[in-house]
Amino acid sequence: MARWFRWQGLVAFLLIVVAGALLSLLFSDLLVKKSIETTGTRLVGARVELEGARLSFFPPALTLKGLQVADPDEPLTNAIEVARITGTLDGASLLRRRVIINEMSAAGVRLNTPRKTSGALRETPGNTTRRSEKPLSSQVLSLSLPGVEKIVELADLQSAKLAGALQAESKRAKKRWEKRLADLPGRDKAAEYQRRIETLKQTAAAGSAQGLRKDILRDLEKLRGAQQECAAEIAALRERTVQLERAPLDDFRRLKEQVSTSPQGLDSFSRLLFGPGVSLWVERALLWHERLQAFLHRVAPAKDIVRPLSGSGFDVRFREKQPLPDFLIRSLTVATQLWLGDVVGRVRHLTPDQNLLGQPMTVAFAGEGLPRASSLTLEGEADRVSGPTEGDTMKLRIKDFRVENVAISDLAGVPVSLVSGTCTLEAQAVFSQAGIFLDLNLAVDPARLSVEPGKGSESIREALSSALERTVRFNVKASARGTVKEYRINITSDLEDVLKEAVAVEVKGQFAEVEDQVRSVMAAKLSGPFREVRVNIEAVEGAARDLETRLAQFTELHNNLPQ
Amino acid sequence: MVKVLAKVFKVLTSETEPGQIGLAVSFALVTGLTPFFSLHNLAVLFLVLVLRVNLLAFILGTVLFSAVASLLEPVFNWMGLALLTAQPFERLWTRLYQSPLWRLEGFNNSVVMGSLAISLLLFLPVALLTASLIRRHGERLLARLRLTRLLQILTASRFHSAYQAVSGWGR
């Protein structure tokens, strides 16, 4: 036996095991801290840091202190900061490599807090490129009229279209009649008939006279028909010419109206005023929804095969009597410190294995009589019970929250801000297989708006100032529809009419100054086609005159026939 | 201090029979290729310490195979998935899945299963091959090693004298 066994080894093994166990106990807090920081950082895509972690074994419990989750988009800001998290662990489940927390509470939760150091990672995971149909933030409304040439170029001139059409039509008519005239009996035919008449007179053959009469009458018929057609075509062309002459006047009236209401063809002031804010709101909502996916559902290449929460490879699941998720927080109580006031909420069934639990994750936050709002409610549900794209819903309502000095947007180089207001916000988000449905309704009553000195001209500032400062309440409705990668934002507001009116006054004044120039540019633009139309019609009229001459000539030939 | 180190080194380098070195390399294959903090590696450690195998070969082998393991991870993953999803084994895996001990072992992870299967499959061939290589080329290899600068420095040091003094330990 001694040849194969080293009995001292048994002592060494026991010593190593005891030392390992002691070291694990000693460094368990550090191991938990590192594990949470590493896994969290991987999932969020920015630094997740903990001030400290404490793992106790009898009973199994976990306490985390000073959790900071950096915002991947703004590395100097924490998306979430939590002062203290405590929870009790299910010891029996731990032996099965499962982290089941029945009750957990998070106190001192704050959003968007500043960081001392950057939370950016060296290698940030590539974000999915999303696209709204227009980059709202890059749209700038210019209340100054563009140059005269540009105004005419941008205008959808009916006269230009008419002139173009008539130009082509008259050209075709001119060519057609040139060809018809060549085909119709003319001078040569008349000369031939004259020769035949001369011969007939010399021979006095009655039968031949009858034949000649028939020929001349047939040609006369052709010429009369052509003459009628030509007259009708000339009448139609003349009528359209009269319409064309009237068209520039109509165009000018329309252009004037168009320029006054929408200087650059931009039809939505609401979009320009609130678009950048709404666009940012939608973009952030989608980004965080995407990031939360890792906490709601695991990568699963096939049924019962999932990516483990930590480590590499895949975990294969087999049938169990009582299947449970690998990670589950049954109930998480969250005490948040928002700028509106303290709000308490509860998150239930937080797990990436909802299919095993059979219940969706729910979120419910509520606060009444807050320092800056009368109430706040947030309700949400993320359903992954039957699959990764079942559907998520979220409803938020904040009633009577008071805001002061909020910059809204920069309209035509003039910053617009909400000096003070009481707002009621209702937002609803649905993410489903059919697409995204985001709706936002903001009512501000009372509202005090003001415009600040900016890059825009003084006259524009005055126009906007007088319009906005008269406003005592307003509503904004925004919606986003489409897919997560490509969506369309629609924004409406009752500020639209107020702003349009102000802009109309301003632009009408500017347009009056360039009215004559616009007329002459339009006239110059149409003069070429007009000239060609006239030339072509004259050519067709020439054809009519030619037909008349031929008719007279053939009639005379007919009259000269011997009886 | 030098004496203690020399004693430790002596323990590590004892059991120099080709079979003992071959077995040590095979055990290193398991600990090196599979995830280090696994339950089965505790059993391997027990066997390595209790059986008379060369500890230095085990330690060096573990380091070497750990480096190779990261390169072979896709192979382990593929192999593990194939075994875990194979119909004939389903009942066995399902039964093991119910046991906390096996769950703690993490056998249902594709990389754990794949690497363990491959290392167990290679266990005997590697042990026999290593032993055979040492029997055939061991002396020549040792002679070459003795000529290396590092070994010459070591043999000239106080550490070597201390090692010579404790060489009877453990026999």
Strand and helix layout:
The complex is a heterodimer of chains A (563) and B (171).
Chain A (H helix, E strand, L loop, with lengths): L6 H38 L3 E2 L2 E6 L2 E11 L6 E13 L1 H4 L4 E16 L16 E2 L15 H7 L3 H26 L3 H17 L2 H56 L7 H28 L8 E2 L8 E2 L10 E12 L2 E10 L3 H4 L3 E10 L2 E11 L7 E21 L2 E19 L2 E17 L6 H12 L4 E9 L3 E8 L1 H65 L4
Parallel strand pairs in A: 5-9, 6-17
Antiparallel strand pairs in A: 1-3, 2-3, 3-4, 4-5, 7-8, 9-10, 10-11, 11-12, 12-13, 13-14, 14-15, 15-16, 16-17
Helix pairs in contact in A: 3-10, 4-6, 4-10, 5-6, 5-10, 6-10, 9-10
Chain B lengths: L1 H12 L4 H16 L5 H12 L4 H30 L5 H8 L2 H6 L4 H38 L1 H7 L2 H8 L6
Helix pairs in contact in B: 1-9, 2-3, 2-4, 2-7, 4-7
How is this structure best described in words?
The complex is a heterodimer of chains A (563) and B (171). Chain A is of the alpha+beta class. Among the domains of chain A are: 151 residues, no CATH class; 139 residues, no CATH class. Chain A is built from ten helices and 17 strands. Chain A has a 15-stranded mixed beta sheet that branches. In chain A, strands 7-8 form a two-stranded antiparallel sheet. Chain A starts with 6 loop residues before the first helix and ends with a helix. Chain B has 171 residues and is mainly α. Chain B has one domain. The radius of gyration of chain B is 19 Å and the shape is elongated. The two termini of chain B are 22 Å apart. Chains A and B meet through α1 and β8 of A and α3, α4, α5, α6 and α7 of B.
